[in-house]
Description:
Low-confidence stretches: 301-306
Radius of gyration: 25 Å
Number of helices: 21
Order of helices and strands: HHHHHHHHHHHHHHHHHEEHEHHHEE
Shape: globular
Mean pLDDT: 93
Number of strands: 5
Structural class: mainly alpha
Distance between the termini: 73 Å
Strand order of the largest sheet: 2-1-3-5-4
Amino acid sequence: LPSLPYVFLAVYALLNLCFLERFPFVHSNESWLSGLSRSIFLSHDFAATEPFFDLKDRYPHAIKLIFHGMQIVVIKLLGYNIFSMRLLSLVFGVLSLYLIYKLALLLWGKQAAALGALVFCAVDIQFVYASHLARQEIILVFCLLLSLYFFYKYLPRPGLGADLLSGSVIGLSIGVHPNSFIIFLPALVLYVYHVLISKRLPWVSLLRYLTAVSCFAFAFIGLSLFLDPQFLNHYSALGESLAVFNPLPSKLTGLKLFYQKLYYSISGTYYTPWIRFQFYLFGAIFLGALGLAWLQRNEKGPARDKSCPAAAEITLGLIFAILALNLGIVLVGRFNQTSVIFQFPLFYLLAASLIYTLPDVKTLWRHLAAGLLTLVLLSSSMLNIFPALVHSYDDYLRQIEKYVPAGARVLANLNTEYYFSPGKLYDYRNLAFLPDKGLDFDEYIRGNDIEYIIYPEEMDVIHQERPRWNGMYGPLLYYEEMQAFLKDHCRLAGQFSAPVYGMRIVGYQNIRDWQVKIYRVNTL
């Protein structure tokens, strides 16, 4: 049934549209990214920075410019809201699933294996999560898969166009997110393997791939310098603040902590799905793939072309790609929990290979194994998704709408940004920089003509448990001054419960009925 994958993808997209806004909860970094896109769109200036950060120094650059360009197109076509921003991610999620299918078909020539890889990844909770979040990770997944597809498609017939295609995809991804460096490494490792070990590629192929990536890298650096002549200094300082330049032993320790947090679903403000089953599954797949490569060691390449890689080389290539992704995570040193998704499609490609290419296994047992794995992954996803469907982001914004006009100037959490008119919201993260600017809380509120303060109860918890949560808003040195201002210069306009959006710390969400208070600032 050649139309089956297309029918599956269409149904999958429609089902995901039904809960696109509700799962996962809206994170403030989604509105951070889209808020910058809206600012660029309205100002017609790619050098624009975030209007909600007036004290936190921000500098323009071209890294992520393609992503913002994509969001601008969506804003122009569908308007500015969380649904339209997440729809962009869902589109790339569906396109990534299609690439998984095409890549598996290219590698093994078996539709059953290709459908298996497609379905396994589609029902995985981490993939669903990445396909819903208005961030860049799922676009990088698409770029990673496309670069591997081009690599394997033209591996039997290496040439200038083949290497430039693979390199250009990675090069363009620099304009999506700095983590493009992570997805650059898998194809690099495959080029090195087939140049030095299998001898299927000449040295010039590797050189062309590196040249293509480097040309785009220099172009983005040059454009960044055009937007900000001090780009190199500012971006280096940002990397320093994010521990990118930490020594390698420290980063290796960070990798261990990275996986421990994922295993135990420990997070600060990002939703971290329960993926403990995947840890055991992927460990078994990794070992099974090594065993499969050993069994395949004497198999020849596909009959269509003797220059095609042998089955064992394909299996080992995917293993090398997974190891390369982990090396990239270590070298970058950010350990963002959302970046783990890069590995999932490759593991499910290996899972499909184990099920459908392992010799001397009856077809019935293959289908049963694929069905059981799909059922377990789907059940895990449903257990993660269903509790989130109770809480609506639209309900949260409607509660705010009862008390605050969209055009009012407010101090609020950035997760409210989709409701307010451009340039009207000031985020709490600014307040950490009050001392640097020689301001106190009162001067900041009056100086920006702020009319309302939307105060989530999380602020009290962060202060009580300081310095544990200083990473969210910085040290709350202004807390007592803020409380005095709320008492002496504001009146309570209303309040409402928000078990999720009134508390950004994931571990505390839904454990009590967190309150959001809305204060009207008294005019002088």
